[in-house]
Amino acid sequence: MTSTTRRSVLAGAAFAASFAITPAFAQAPTEIELFFPVPVDGQLARDMTALIKEFNEKNPAIKATPVYTGSYDETLIKTRAAMKAGKPPAAVIMSANFLLDLKIEGEIQKLDDLIKTDGKTNEAYMGQFFRALHGNAVLDRSVYGVPFHNSTPLLYVNADHFKEAGLDPEKLPSNWEELASAAKKLTKREGDRVTRWGIIAPSNYDYGGWILQALTQSNGGQWFNVDYGGEVYYDSPSMLGALTFWSDLVGKHKVHPAGVQAGGAVSTAFLSGQASMVLLSTGSLTHIRTNAKFPYKVAFVPKNVKNEVPIGGASLVIPTGVEGERRKAAWTLINWMTSPEKSGWWSRATGYFAPNMAAYELPEMKEFIAKNPDAGIAVSQLAYAKPWFATYKTVPVRKAIEDELQAVLSGKKQPKEALVSAQKTADEIMKPYVEQTALKLPTN
Amino acid sequence: MIEASSGVANREITPRLGYAATLLIAALWMTPFLWMLVAAFNPHTYGGSGMASLVPSYVPTLGNFAEAWASADFPRYGLNTAIISFGILAGQIVMITLAGYAFARLEFPGRTLCFYLFLLQLMLAPVVLIVPNLATIAKLGLYDSLLGVMAPYFASAFGTFLMRQAFRAIPRELEDAALIDGASVWQRIGFIYLPLAKPSLIAFGIVSVTSHWNEFLWPLMVINSPDLRPLTVGLASFTRGAEGAQAWGVIAAGTLMVSAPLLIAFALFQRAFVNSFVSSGIK
Known about the structure:
The complex is a heterodimer of chains A (444) and B (283). Chain A is of the alpha/beta class. In chain A, 48% of the residues lie in helices and 15% in strands. Chain A has helices at residues 3-26, 42-58, 72-84, 99-104, 112-117, 122-126, 159-164, 176-186, 207-218, 237-251, 263-271, 285-291, 324-337, 340-350, 363-371, 373-381, 394-409, 415-436; strands at residues 30-36, 62-68, 91-95, 138-139, 142-143, 146-151, 153-158, 188-190, 193-200, 275-281, 296-299, 309-310, 312-317, 385-386. A five-stranded mixed sheet of chain A has the order 2-1-3-13-6. In chain A, strands 8-9-10-7-11 form a five-stranded mixed sheet. In chain A, a hairpin with a 2-residue loop joins β8 and β9 (193-200). Chain A is globular and about 70 Å long. By secondary structure, chain B is mostly helical. Chain B has helices at residues 2-40, 63-71, 74-105, 111-119, 130-139, 146-150, 157-168, 172-180, 185-196, 198-213, 217-222, 231-239, 248-268, 270-280. Chain B is globular and about 70 Å long. In chain B, 32% of the residues are buried. The chains are: A alpha/beta (444), B mainly alpha (283). Chain A binds chain B through residues 33, 38-46, 65-72, 74, 77-78, 80-82, 84-87, 89, 151, 195, 204, 206-207, 262-265, 267-268, 270-274, 280-281, 283-284, 287-288, 291, and chain B through 46-49, 51, 71, 130-131, 134-135, 137-139, 143-144, 216-217, 220-221, 224-226, 229, 233, 236-248.
C-alpha cells in the first residue's frame, strides 16, 4: 500500500469513526457526585470505588463520582457546607439519624414523587426494607431516605478465652448479671496491672452515644421521643441504670478500662486478645471475621429488662436543590445501590445488614449465612431493633450526653450529676425548636 | 582558691543537670515517633501485646509500607499536598511582606485600628468559617480546586504581625539612605527589608508549611475529585474507619510516609531552621 492510499484509508476510517462516536457525544453523560463516609475501614473506600465503577459501566448516560467525605459527622459538615456554597452533591450516604434534623432544616428532599413516578406507593416502596429501618427514613409519612447499610450493636466474644476461664462458649451472657460475672472471670491481672480486659465498649463520639442507647433500651428505657424532635430523656431512671452499669464495669468491678475507648482501638484490642468481650457494630463483622486468629462468637447485646437495640448505619438521601436530570440520575443510582443484589454484595463485603429483605432470598446470600452463622445472628437481632435517636440538632444534642459519658468513664463525674447536666445542655440546644413547635400556642 | 573551685563545681553540675533534663524531655517527646517507627516495620499489623512495645521484637518487614502504598495514590496526593503547602506559602510571603511593610512603615489614617482588626483574625477558630469561606470559594469558581484550598490562607494575620515586628526592628536610616539614592518602594522592600527579615520569613515558612501539610478538614470540604486529594485526606480514607479495627502497622507506615518529606527537610536544614527561630524570637 502506498502512503497516499494508506492515508486516505486512515482518513476514511477516522471519518467513519467520527460517525460512530457522534451519538455518544451528542448526549454527554449526566455528572453526579456521591458523598460517602468510610465508617468501617479503608478497604471499603476501595469497595465503594469498585461499586460505582460498575454502575457507570452499566449506565453510560450517567457518570457518578464517589467522593470520600470523612466520618459520619464530617460528611454532614461537608454536605451542609457544599449546599450553602450552592454545590449540593446529587446523593449522600448519610448517617441514618441525621435525616430528621436535615428534614427540619429543609436540607433534604422528599422522594415521594420519584417513587410515584416509578408506579409505587410509599408503603410498597418501603415494604422492601426491614421494618426497623423505617423510623429513620420515613418522616411525617414521606420518604426522605433509602436505607443503604445498617447495623445494630453486637456482643463479640473470644471463645478460647471463655474455655480458658471455665465458661461455656455455647452459652454466652444474655443479661447484665451474666455479662458482669463473665467479665470478672475473663479479666486477667498481674498484680495491679490488667493484662486482659473482660469487656470493652467504645465511647468515642458517635459510637459512645449509640452503645449507651443500646444499654438504655435493654434496660427498658427510651432515649428520645420517637415522634417529636425536641425531647430526649437523659435524666431518667432507665438511663441512670445504664450509665451506672457501664461505670461500675470500670470503677467497681475493674473489668473495663477507664477513659475514652475509640471504636477502632476496641476492635484492635479484641483481635489482639487484649479484650475477651467487646460491644461493637455488626458493621465490624467482616473485619473481625477476616482478621480474628481465634474462634469467636457473637450474641445479642445482653439485656437487663428486655432485648432491644438501636439501628445504626446510613441511608441514601438527595439534598435540596438537586433538580432535573441530576435528580433522576441520583434516583437511578440510589435504586441500583439498594437493589437486592448490590445491597447483598455490600453486606457480605462489610458485615452490615442488607436493608433490602429480598437480598436474603438470593442463593449467594443463603449460602453466605449458612457458612457464617454469626451474620445470621446479627440479622435475627433486627427483630428487636428500634429507631436510632434523632432530634433537632442531633450532633450537638448527642455530644451533650457523650461529653458526660466520657467524664463518667474517666472517673471525673458520678452518673447522676452527669445525666442532669447532659439533660440541661440538650434542652438548651433544642429550646428554639421546642418554642417554635411544641410551645407555640395560640395567643388570644 | 576555694571560691574558684566551688564556682567550677557549680558550673559543671548545672549544665549536666540541664543536659539530662533536655534528654529526658527529648525522649518523652520522641516516644510517639519511635513507636510509629517500631510499629511501621511490625509484621503483626493488628498488634498482639508486642504492638505496644517500643522495643522491636520481630523480623522487620516492609509489608505495611507496601500495603499503605497500594491503598492510595501517594505520589499524586504528595504532589497535591506540596502544591497546596508551598502555594499557600508563596501567596503568604507576598501578602505578609507587603502588609507588614504597610503596617510598619507607611503612615495612613486608622493604621493602628486596621492592624488590630487584622489581628482579630487570630481569635477565630478556622472551623467557624468553613461555611462562609466555602460559599466565597464557590462564588469565585474555585470549588473543587487546589487554589480553593489555598486561597483563604493567603492573608495571614500571624505572618503580617511577624513581618511588621521584623520590619520595625530594621533601622529606618537604611531605608532613608536608599531613598536618597532614588530607590522605589519596591526596591526598598526587595533589597533592604526582605533580606534583613529573612530569619523571620524562614521561621514563618516552617510554621506555615507544617500546619498546612497536616491539615485535614478544610481540604476535605473543598476537594471532591479523587485526583486532587492531599495526603491527609488520602491517608484518612484508608485508616480512619470507625467500625473496623485499626491496622496499626499500616497506619504507622502510611503516617511515616506522609510525614517523611517534612522530617527529612528538617533534618537537612536543621541548623538554618533553629537559627532562624532564635533570631526571629519564635520559640
